[in-house]
Amino acid sequence: MAETLKAVPSLLSVETVVAVLKLIHSCDSSSSLNDPALLRFMLESSVAVLQDANGRLKDVQTSGSMVLATDAQATRCSIAPLIFHSLELLTANVVENKPKKVKQIKSLPQLCVDSIEQLFCFGVASSTPSFLSHISELIHSTFSELDAELDTYINNKQQAAEASKTNSNRPLDLTSTQRNQMSVHVGMIKIESVFVDLVSKGYQTEALSIVKVMDHLVDLLDEDEMKIHTEWFKNICYEDAITESPLIEASVQLHIRTSKTLTVLYSLCTDVRRFLGDIEEEDEETRYTPPTDTPKTPVSVYAILSSLNAVKSVITVVLGQCKQFFDEVESLLSRLNRLHPSDLFCNEDEVITESDLGSKIGKLEDDLYLLLTKQAKIIDELAQTALQETETHNLIKLLIQVYKTIGSLTKRLIPLKQSIPPRNFSKLVEYCAKSLTTNVYNLRSFKQGWSKDTKSTASKESKLVPLLIFNIENYERFLIKLSKATKVDFMRSVARSSAHDFKINYKKVAAAHKEEDEEQEGGRGGGRGKEEDEEEDAEDYIFLALPGLVLETALRFWLLI
Q1: Residue 331 contacts by C-beta under 8 Å, 6 or more apart in sequence?
Q2: What are the C-alpha distances in Å from 74 to residues 26, 56, 137, 265, 495?
Q3: What is the radius of gyration, based on Cα positions, of the chain?
Q4: pTM score, two decimals?
Q5: How far apart are CA 166 and CA 448, in angstroms?
Q6: CB-based contacts of 500: which residues, under 8 Å, 6+ apart?
Q7: CB within 8 A of 212, min separation 6: which ones?
Q8: Among 18, 235, 271, 556, which one is most buried in terms of CB atoms within 10 A?
Q9: Helix axes 308-338, 389-413, angle to 10 degrees
Q10: CA 500 – CA 238 distance, rounded (Å)
Q11: Cα-to-chain-centroid distance, residue 429
């Protein structure tokens, strides 16, 4: 039959795909899987049909055709339950999923989850009524018993509301948006059960697409439902059921994103350090010992760190999250240096006094120092960990960015000559001096001895290590200038730099800083009349739209600690 359908392309309409899939599912599970080639062909066709429907839904944004949107949504709703049923049949029965020795051909379950991803990730997730309505309708079409479970959930919520308010017998009033959000919540519970079923039966590659779907849908939930699923994502990382690196990375990223707290990153780094062990005192006789799947010390929180590959995946995620944070800080500093403060905190019709503007800038920077201190503690954990070559290399690149950023922040304070420096800045300086910088120098010694064993390329070492030391010493040079300007000894806790086999040309550095300052002054001047600068100003306005939530907007969830 598959050959017949392939020979007649005109039959491959939405109606044909739906009709054949229904025919397959109308048989009992054993007979419906007697022809895997037919099922494969129909699943591939369903992916193509969904891609076409998603394209038509996107076209609605420009054309505004409700007929087009209704037709595309009807296609999606008719295919959705058949796709989930196909996945259920395939994971419950042993089927020849793909021809042997042909790696590029996807398995049948993979085709199913590809279709599921097409169903739910067809646009940018937003809580607009139209998008929520599409997703809610799709979920109701997919899971036949959803209505009863949704009613139960709403009744339970009504009882909780009545218990919290005495003498309240009024029924819970729900808007259409709230009801749609609850539908997404109940639907996500179903999708989470699909994820657990796939992982338990060894379909971890296929489960990756389900994580993408959950990552997409979680933004549609309200705060109460979000907490429920955040707890579920956390429990996934607390267990050791997941073993494949891509799925570990996706699961940990989803846990970090939904938890909205830096404590998660710190706990992950602590467990990584427990697994790999500490950097011990090095001497010339010491040799690097590659880590194994046997942890130095059992992890205390995240059982997902069950192997060396899992640890590598988590380190990749943590370093990526930290780099993203410092990229955003650098972008913020660029805007603070380039634009006038009133452009960052005022609307066009809003009038703000200089004193209010100064307090807003001060609050912004003080919050930034607090976040940098917390980030420094996270990175410090990794700096004390016996990492492998690639991870150590990436950590050093991140440390270069760390010291460059705090050096820029220190430089900003010098012209102000404040007699009392910001409290959180003092904490940042003290932590870096007493802990982070000391451990960075130990990491450098560790890497030098370890590089001899692994025969790393000398070019990487000759560039990265001097650049790291330069940024540390440049930051300390700004601290000395700030100490003179404020009469506060910021260098009291700073240890002397270790000897190094290269020389920093400070004349070139000074010339480079002078040129940088001139460019920044020029940017503050007359550049606002140009079209390209107006576009950048518009981006800045979005980036720092609300004065009270500046960091929460600019740095995503980093303030929610």
Answers
A1: 543, 554
A2: 21, 12, 10, 43, 68
A3: 28
A4: 0.79
A5: 69
A6: 465, 466, 469
A7: 117, 121, 250
A8: 271
A9: 20
A10: 43
A11: 28
